[in-house]
Amino acid sequence: MALPINIEDLLEQKTVESSRIDYKAGWNPEPIIHTICAFANDIDNIGGGYIVIGIDEENGMPVFPIKGIDKDSIDTINKELLQKCNLIEPRYIPVISHEIYDGKDILILWIPGGNARPYKCPIEIYQKAKSPKAYYIRKGSNTIKASADEERHLFSISSSIPFDDRPNPQASTNDIAPYLITDFLNKVGSSINIDPKTSISDVMLQMGLLDGPAEMRFPKNVALMFFSENPERFFPYARIEFVDKPDPAGENMTETTFTGPLDQQITTALRFIKGYVIKERIQKLEYTAEAVRTFNYPFAAIEEALVNAVYHKSYEIREPITITLTPKQIEIRSFPGPDRYITDEDLENGHLIGLQYRNRRIGDYLKELKLAEGRNTGIPKIIDSMSKNGSPSPLFITDSERIHFGVILPIHESFLPKEDKKNKGPIRRSKTEMKKAILSILADCGKMSVGQLADALGYPMPTSSLRAAIKELAEEQKIEYTEKNLRAPNQKIKLKVN
Hints:
The strands form seven sheets. A six-stranded mixed β-sheet has the order 13-12-16-17-19-18. The chain has a four-stranded mixed β-sheet with strand order 1-2-6-5. Strand 16 (321-325) and strand 17 form a beta hairpin. The protein is globular and about 85 Å long. 32% of the residues lie in helices and 19% in strands. It contains 16 helices and 21 strands. It has helices at 7-11, 29-41, 74-85, 148-157, 178-188, 200-206, 221-227, 262-276, 299-312, 344-349, 360-368, 378-388, 418-422, 431-445, 450-457, 464-475, and strands at 21-24, 49-53, 57-58, 61-62, 95-101, 104-111, 120-122, 133-139, 142-145, 210-211, 218-219, 240-244, 254-258, 280-284, 291-295, 321-325, 329-334, 395-398, 405-410, 479-481, 493-495. Helix 9 (299-312) packs antiparallel against helix 12 (378-388) and helix 14 crosses helix 16. It has four domains: 7-159, Schlafen, AAA domain (Methyltransferase, Cobalt-precorrin-4 Transmethylase, Domain 2); 173-231, no CATH class; 240-416, Heat Shock Protein 90; 425-498, Orthogonal Bundle (Arc Repressor Mutant, subunit A), CATH 1.10.10.10. It is α+β, with helices and mostly antiparallel strands.
């Protein structure tokens, strides 16, 4: 059976992270069954993985030129593999594909995260007496036996299949547009062959996009997100909304909406932003032939923030992804916010490392379409792009309940409105206006330090009037401090929940 991925890109680790590929020089049932079990358990919800039989590895990387396997042994390997998979509880059968690479025969096993996890298998496959069974998981590029804590975690997530990988009983294959699947397979260079005699159901089965018994199969949510013409029929507000807000009061505001399959939403929104938002300034330097090229916003940072929002949004929440442009910044907001194991300090430092992914299949498709890169690379790329452009550091914000997540990209200083460049002094506000502004910012952004509040209010540093307003709001029990020690280095202020 062919795979819905470009084999060359897979083996060269262009679209799938190295930790999700396991290379085996030859057929060795015991470690292979253990690794099938580990990928099927998919403890981090990253989408399972692949086992390549016929390629040796060194330090997790394939060794070229490849050795391949004897073509005459393939039928025997297939039969023994299916037999050994019966030892996995519950039974799990990977997708097996015979491929030719560099003139050599190899077998590739595709092991998506299983819907009946957790899975266990014998510790010793060939032991004469009945071998005890164990749960296996992946840690980095290694297959290991799960510890007692990891076993408990496997059981805790066993009933939770990521939303994008669940079947949708409200839909059928009639809701899938075959031309979108054909276009996708052509773009990624898949070897799946589509001809007039091939039914859409057969193709979707090969792609792992259908679930359920033969008499009642339903498309998975990810199929409807990428291969139905109008995903909003099934996931209300699964769209991107761009708002240009040139005035704080909302006058002359314009809105543009991007709908359709998720990858089309991303590409059309980015094309629009590139033409409508991005501006470049070229400054000729004295005594040198070189010129400095500066952008109001580095396009790479916007691209990464938007792809991350599409990847990590919950499609069970009926809220769109919003992109808001003002004269001073662009903000990309999605729902919900980051998991609580990502602390406020992590947010402040731009250290957002996901332990588990909300959507394990969406990420795979975005990577195969070259719209997303490897795991946990998005935030560092945003920070790096802003720094190389000479822009202020990006801000990563959420609220106290982690309802939303926002990425704020401040405009490069040279593109600030003229009045902002001239007026570097403090913005005058009455005490009432100051208190109202503080409450509004905290309601929107959650916890903030005094310095962050000052910056949000347009002050170069905390002023005496700002500190006085904070003190009064605390006395009125409208806000509170996160730390008992008021001078604590990580002290923040937040709205008080009564």
